[in-house]
């Protein structure tokens, strides 16, 4: 491929709205162009990377026994009503009407469509197991689509769905997908980690997310330094033990705290550490009030809360609701004589007493509070966010927190959709049974973005060879010289024969521009052909990742190149 015929509109400046590195570099490297918020055109170079990612996904899915299909993107509302998700799925679901005023949506995911398909096709246990997948554009009307391909509204996903006759079958299907995902991300040359993830109302360890490790990741993951435990913080359980503190002699007492509301303010005012306080957080859960108590210095994990109370929607109480439920303005809520049916406390509050809490009264707090003595709790539960000072819930040793980007998700759905949509089969005894399902997603376009988040430097992208739009770039420094042009052609042909994807920079540009662009677009192997080098019998080769330059002799180029290539590839962890 010749650069002069291949459209790569590189830019000096990143777009003003780009916050993350991948968004900046994808745009500057001419790989994507924005149409409108969260919606992009994949330009020739960008599409090549996406195509390479898709090809790896496809090969491994096929190897794992899944069959590729392509389902419609426009989905009728009645299927979503049947599954119960039409009302429940939030504003991410883009809803539309056709000319007959019938409701549709743009597919954010395809559980309904695939379940409808399979219930119409599969009759007998003999047709199971079945695993169908597609690589296709999804639409989710994300609230903050500000990260380029990382969080688009339109994006490419591989989604697979497995159907089994029993739990053992589902376990097998899940294991096969888990293994395929490991193979996929290893082949892509990414540093990643599968972590235990939240399974929502289904519960149990039925879900893993595949995280690309990058400082810019939106997810925080907990990794044990001693055992194999790794989990999304949303899910990470907290071990908590000690002696229960259920008595307190000092009587409860009201203190005046005029105009101090936050824990920080009250703590300064009363000269007590944040750990002496209980924060009372109020929520509207499916229209009903819920109160949650955590220690003053802690953060509530709302995913844990949502799972505990099995809520479909969970919103922080509005200032009006706070006033209505507590009789006080925001900042003074407390659990004592709180007229709310459900009050949950975080586990660790069990192991201490003598708390300071809000008094449900403007400008007042209560001190010397004992939960057992003074509060009617619904119960204790693991409700806070894990911190680096907590220990591994599996082995009790030290943990660390790192950042990750979710590129894949494997999930045991069980009968969630097959039940509501009536996806059944006849078992060995001719009995009607509901199928067990799993779903498995990979954000193909996000993979390319996260690969850049993980692999870049101040000059541009450093693509791992498997995801690079081209593996080698041959830079022609003198397009007016026949000798140079002939050499470039010769090398191009040689590399092609080696099965290497090559781009030749044959543009009428200054060497400086060519070198800058070469680093920006991040092709892993750069080979420079110029008049002076040829005179000395050498070609300069640069490993984009390390920046290391090597001189390859013109005589015996083939052997020298192969050796050099091996070295470049060995620097990547491609399994
Ligand atoms: P997130 O938590 O990042 O919003 P999700 O858990 O909602 O993602 P899934 O429903 O698990 O996403 O979708 C499967 C995969 O699709 C994700 O693992 C992710 O890689 C990708 N993905 C999801 N939303 C987007 C998006 N808005 N843009 C690009 N890729 C996405
Ligand atoms: Mg997910």
TrEMBL record:
Cytoplasm among keywords: yes
Ranges for domain Aminoacyl-transfer RNA synthetases class-II family profile come to 38-464
> What's the chief localization of this chain?
cytoplasm
- Where, subcellularly, is it found? Cytoplasm
**Keywords for this protein:** Aminoacyl-tRNA synthetase, ATP-binding, Cytoplasm, Ligase, Nucleotide-binding, Protein biosynthesis
EC number of the protein: 6.1.1.15
Q: What does this protein do?
A: Catalyzes the attachment of proline to tRNA(Pro) in a two-step reaction: proline is first activated by ATP to form Pro-AMP and then transferred to the acceptor end of tRNA(Pro). As ProRS can inadvertently accommodate and process non-cognate amino acids such as alanine and cysteine, to avoid such errors it has two additional distinct editing activities against alanine. One activity is designated as 'pretransfer' editing and involves the tRNA(Pro)-independent hydrolysis of activated Ala-AMP.
**NCBIfam families, per database record:** PRK09194.1 (NF006625), proS_fam_II (TIGR00409)
The protein here is known as Proline--tRNA ligase
**Taxonomic source organism:** Halodesulfovibrio aestuarii
Which gene is the coding source of this polypeptide chain? Answer: proS
């Amino acid at each position: 491929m010749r650069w002069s015929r291949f459209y790569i509109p590189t830019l000096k400046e990143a777009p003003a709205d780009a916050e993350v590195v991948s968004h900046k570099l994808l745009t500057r490297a001419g790989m994507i162009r924005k149409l409108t918020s969260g919606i992009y055109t994949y330009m020739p170079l960008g599409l090549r990377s996406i195509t390479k990612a898709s090809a790896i996904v496809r090969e491994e899915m096929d190897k794992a026994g899944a069959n590729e299909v392509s389902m419609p993107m426009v989905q009728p509302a009645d299927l979503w009503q049947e599954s119960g998700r039409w009302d429940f799925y939030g504003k991410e679901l883009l809803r539309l009407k056709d000319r007959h005023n019938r409701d549709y949506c743009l597919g954010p995911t395809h559980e309904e469509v695939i379940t409808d398909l399979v219930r119409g096709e599969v009759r007998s246990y003999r047709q199971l197991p079945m695993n169908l997948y597609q690589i296709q554009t999804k639409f989710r009307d994300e609230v903050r689509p500000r990260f380029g391909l990382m969080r688009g509204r339109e994006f490419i996903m591989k989604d697979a769905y497995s159907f089994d006759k029993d739990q053992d079958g589902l376990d097998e299907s899940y294991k096969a997908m888990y293994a395929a995902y490991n193979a996929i991300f290893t082949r892509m040359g990414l540093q990643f980690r599968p972590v235990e993830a939240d399974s929502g109302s289904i519960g149990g360890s039925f879900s893993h997310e595949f995280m690309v490790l990058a400082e810019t990741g939106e997810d925080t993951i907990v990794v044990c330094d001693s055992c194999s435990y790794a989990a999304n913080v949303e899910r990470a359980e907290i071990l908590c033990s000690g002696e229960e503190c259920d008595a307190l002699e000092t009587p409860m007492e009201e203190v005046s705290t005029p105009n101090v509301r936050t824990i920080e303010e009250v703590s300064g005012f009363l000269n007590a550490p944040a750990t002496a306080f209980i924060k009372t957080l109020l929520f509207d859960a499916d229209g009903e009030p819920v109160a949650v108590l955590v220690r003053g210095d802690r953060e509530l994990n709302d995913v844990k809360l949502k799972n505990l109370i099995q809520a479909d929607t969970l919103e922080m109480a509005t200032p009006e609701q706070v006033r209505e439920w507590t009789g006080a303005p925001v900042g003074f809520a407390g659990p004592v004589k709180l007229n709310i049916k459900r009050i949950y406390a975080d586990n660790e509050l069990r192991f201490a007493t003598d708390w300071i809490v809000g008094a449900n009264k403007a400008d007042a707090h209560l001190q010397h509070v004992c939960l057992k003595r003074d509060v009617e709790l619904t119960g204790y539960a693991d409700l806070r966010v894990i911190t680096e000072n907590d220990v591994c819930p599996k082995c009790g040793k030290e943990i660390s927190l790192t950042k990750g980007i979710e590129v894949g998700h494997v999930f045991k759905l069980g009968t969630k959709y097959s039940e509501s949509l009536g996806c059944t089969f006849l078992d060995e005894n001719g009995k009607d049974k509901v199928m067990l399902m799993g779903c498995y997603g990979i954000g193909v376009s996000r993979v390319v973005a996260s690969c850049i988040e993980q692999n870049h430097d101040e000059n541009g992208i450093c693509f791992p060879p498997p995801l690079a739009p081209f593996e080698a770039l041959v830079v022609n420094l003198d397009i007016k010289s026949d000798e140079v042009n002939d050499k470039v052609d010769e090398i191009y042909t040689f590399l092609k024969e080696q099965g290497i994807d090559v781009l030749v920079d044959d543009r009428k540009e200054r060497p400086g521009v060519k070198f800058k662009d070469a680093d920006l677009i991040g092709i892993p192997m750069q080979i420079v052909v110029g008049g002076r080098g040829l005179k000395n019998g050498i070609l300069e080769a640069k490993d984009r990742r390390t920046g290391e330059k090597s001189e390859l002799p013109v005589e015996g180029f083939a052997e020298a190149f192969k050796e050099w290539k091996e070295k470049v590839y060995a620097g990547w962890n491609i399994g």
